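ok here's ParB/Sulfiredoxin domain-containing protein:
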Amino acid sequence: MAESKNKVTVRGRNRRSSGLDKMEQARSKVREQQEQQDNGNQESQQPWEPAINTGAKDCIRDDLAIASVSPDPQNARDFPVIRPTAEAMFLAQEENVGKPYVIIDKGTIVNKTPKNHPLYKHIQTQIDEIVLLAEQIREGGGIYQPIEVYRVGGTDYRIVFGHRRFYSVVYLTGWDGVWPFQVHRQKPKSPKLRQFAENNSRSDLALHEKIYAFKMAYDEIKDDESKELTAVETMKLMGLKNASFYRYLLLNKFPFIYDAVRDGIDFMTIRELEEALKLPDGTEDEELAVKMNLAEMFLNNSMSVPEYLKAVNEDEELESPNDSDLGLDGNDQNNENDDSQAGKEPQNEIRRGRKAKYYVPPRIKNTNVVKTLLTSDITKMEIEGINWEEVNWEDRAQVNQCLDATIKALEEMKQED
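and the structure:
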């Protein structure tokens, strides 16, 4: 009987001891993890660590002078920042006149972008978000996801990821402050891929910023000669589905697409843009066709057409000195007409290059002009710059010039009436 009792007692003691041990082990594990986090030990798994191994786990936490950290000049965020002390030098450079920029320092953030610039509203929105984030950092006692940097030489560091957080910290502490950063032990192997992977799902990035981020990450992958990846492997590495991957490739087909999306930020949607990039089968000059489609989007939104959409580059396909090129509205600028064309507006300029392939009438605002054009013998009218007897009706560029000059003259006559 006693033996039986002892067995029960032993079993009970073992069961109680086992439960306490497990609880103590769990508590010890929690304490250990907390101590590791407090000591900046980044070997423990953090909830924000990315799926892509870009060296983030090898970072060490270090307090750095904010003035020693600089944004990545090739980061996707279109938010050019100038220190107050550098503004005079920035404005002294002729190429910076009219460019967007922001002045930022402790408690100061000013949008110095011209109000008529396409990016003014976009930059102002980012300023509001940076100020809000700065208040959240102040109230919350810090940043949940640290700013990652790497050493570029000496005591200078470059941001890998966290540009908006960095600007918020500058707004809080100023350039003379100190802040804890996550410092890579060496330059990350794929910083652009990391930036794209982190930013692609963010709704606060504008479309042109996402296009640029994709290009930088895609080029970085392709420039890596250590391994060749298939399209499927590249998609997986970038975290993109098939449709999104090929959409980004299409948006990067010509460099001017990025410029057009950037300048058309207030009205250009992804759906309309995809429609503009769809071309009929057999299109001879895809670049020119895309330019014309994008230019039409600007006109439909009562916006002036950017220069890069008005004509083909002067250096392209200069096959013969007699070839003429097609601009947005189809005007021709031959050598013999240089004097008569000198007073034309910039959009009427035609550059030498490929031969014009389309008849492109200008947009007509007045219904009476349409009526006159369709019901009258226009060749009986005297229009400045046109000699009807010498018009070569087989030369599309010359006919386009006549169309433009005629409609312009009719518009002026109707305004006088």
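+1. The chain has four domains: 1-39, 56-189, 203-250, 251-416.
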